[in-house]
Amino acid sequence: MTDQATLVTGAAGFIGFHLARQLARHRFTHVVHMAMFPFVNAIMEGRPIRLFNHGRMRRDFTCIDDVTRVVSKLIDRVPADDPAAANAPSKVYNVGNHRPEELMHVVGLLEQELGRTAIKELLPMQPGDVLETFADVEDLMRDTGFAPSTPIAQGVRNFVTWYRDYFKV
Fold this sequence. Notes:
mainly alpha; 6 helices; single chain; Rossmann fold; two-stranded parallel ribbon; two-stranded parallel sheet
C-alpha cells in the first residue's frame, strides 16, 4: 500500500461513501470517474447509448476542470482522525456541480460537439435508480470556499476537445 492520500470523485450515494471509506482504509491513490467517457466512446464508435427511463432523468455532472481545482485545494489538507475509518484520516466530499441537468440536453450537447447523432437505446427505469441526482456541496464549500461551477455546455466542450486530442480523432 502507499502512504498517499485518497480522493474519490464521481461516486454517488451509498456506494460512493463505502468505496471511499474502503479506499481510505487501504490508502489507495486518487480515483476520478468521468461520466461522459462511455457516452462519447459509444457515439464515436456508432454504438447505442443506454438511456433509462427513456432518457427522462436529471443528473448532476461535474466538469473535470472543477475536480482538479478542488483537488488542489484539498491535496495538503489532512482530515482529523476518524475511528470509523480504521485510523486512516479521511473525509468524503461530494464534488458535484450542484445543478442537475436534463440527460437528453446533455446528450444533445455531446451530439453537437461531436458532430454525430447518438444512437439512443431508450429503456424503462431500472429498479433502484432515481430520477434525479443532486450534489450537496455544502461541506466542500464550508471547508474550502470552493464549489464546482463550470456550465454543462463548457464542460462538454472541454471534454470533447480533450477526447479528440487524446484519441487523435
